[in-house]
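ESCALATION

Customer reports they have been waiting on this structure for their group meeting. Please prioritize. Original submission:
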Amino acid sequence: MGVLKRGLAGVLLLSSLANEALAADDASLDAVVVTGRNIENYQAVDTLTGFKTDVELRDLPLSISVVSQELIQDRSLNQLGEALDNVSGAQRKAGYGGVQNFGAYLRGFDASFLTLRNGVRDFGFYTLRDTANVERFEVLKGPGSVLYGAVSPGGITNTITKKPTAEPMLRVQAIAGSRDRYRGEIDVGGPIAGSLYGRLNLAADDADSFRDRTGSDGYFLAPVLTWKATDDVDWTVEVEHRRSDYTWDLGLPRHPNSFKVPISRFLGEPDGVNSVTSTYAASTLEWRLSEAWKLRQVTGYAWTDGDYHLRTFSGVAPNGRTVNRVAYDNWEKSHTFVAQNEVVGAFETGPLGHRFAAGVEYYDTEQSYSFFFSSLAAIDLFAPVYGARPGPGGFVLFADEVSSRATGVYAQDLVSLGDRWKLLVGARYDRVRNKSVNLLTGALSRKSSDEGFSPQVGLVYQPDAATSLYASYGESFLSITSGRKANGEYLDPEEGRQLEVGVKRTWLGGRLSTTLAAYQITKKNVSTPDPANPVFRVQTGEQESKGVELDVAGSPAPGWDVILGVSYIDARVSRDNTFRVGSQLPGAPMHSASLWNKYTLQGGPLEGLELGLGVYYVDDRAIALPNPAFRLPNYVRFDAMAAYDVGRWRVQLNLKNLGDKRIYDLSSTAIFPQEPRSATLRIAYAY
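Update from on-call: job pushed to the front of the queue and completed.
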């Protein structure tokens, strides 16, 4: 802790030297060298997720939510998954024992931990993520397979990272929060030499937790360089590296008695400390062939190395208080290589205008793990006593190497049919090969190959400059990597289909934008246990999600910035031989809403003072299939913020969960409480 506190003092000292380090020029600090993103006051105008290049949101027959860097800063988000609070139809999914990866439930379906970073696939089950270098966070809702291959039909998340700036800039932050949370951040960038530009984000953190006997510390660095080799060629190289040491904490069992104990209840052991290192490197080469056409070549490589010591529960005894536990000591490694080659551009065919994108994508991902099993004494849910050690006679329970390799070819065309109509058509073909090897025996335990064709079509009608009416149809597929049929065959990919209609409109001279969407998604080939032999699987399952969403963002009055999301989701089992038809899908609240307001005083002695208030409502949710009698309870959470700028300095106070409510998120196997009432103070210097 002392090292970090001294580091924070150094961070603040660095700000006093900024005037000597940078030229005294008040030019814009946010002029992005590579690609502009038009976003102001929480309101985004364009998107990079829906078309692989900048396209205005109003021109796409798709529902895309955008969380800006400004909103991430205003809410003082600790983890990227918290950004989902401001996305309609989205819910957080707790990560792997406490690391800073994140998953999502989107439009009623489990999107697992697959995500995108600058449009590149990231198998985020292991990957550590940080908010320090996030420019914006986008969520494409509904099938995204036409651009991104094998994904959930509910949608996909995409993180856009910060790029070099045309002018020198520096932002330094010191952060202190409840429960001895300390963090320092540096964001510095600008011209380096000639046509070379750079940016560097650094962060270090050290924190205890509201969970008993747990804590974490780590650091993050993210350098990025852009070389404008010629007027037509840009080359950007970026790296993200995060190291995290934390206590393994799975949360609480899926048992009704978990709601009767304090949310601080920890059921592991303090010696279950894990060390994880995650690194990502990417190269993006863009070559402008003409004013209308551009080639883009992206390669990315991510690898994670973890030394894990899991002290975790395996179930609750019939008495409802004895929690059985196990100990695993294991190493886990993963690596992913992705290559994309794309051409994007514009052309005309007679009276028709085209925005066109096409490409080829290849990815190769591999995870290796070895779990050393030991017994561990049970613990009392209501009166825990710590200090148990793994028992003797441990053994390697399983060790596998699992890999997937895929190639996809895709094309998408946004056609302007005159001034008022736009037609979006696209298609993708993917081939995915899966393989599993038992590292204990060297035997090949799985080798399969799946193919998928994913079409998409949508129509936009714009009766005036402020209104877009749209309808769309899209399909998705997702390869299933575990389980077999009784005849020995592997399972077919899950297939998703969505119909969506909506209206997008701007108000008040463009200062406020709204999107109202209604959709129906059907997911087929859902695997369930074989009634004749539950060891095997059959694919008679079907799940359906119907919903309505409303998103609002912008500035309805001077000084007032707002972002609102409201959703209704009816996500249920529609056909199955095991689970009751009509069962609600886990993690999908029927009703949810979020509202974040920020008002900046426009005059008086406190002119410039910013006051923020957020309210978040989530309905109760099913915990698992089959639906147990108990559910995750509904909640209303209030957050608040106050900030004031004094010259180049900014002081910001955030209060989360003002009512100190008990709130729970769902993970793959457990439930995890959200943080109770907390406070965070930020002191920032910007140049």
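Sent to customer with the following note: The chain is about 5% helix and 60% strand.
Escalation resolved.
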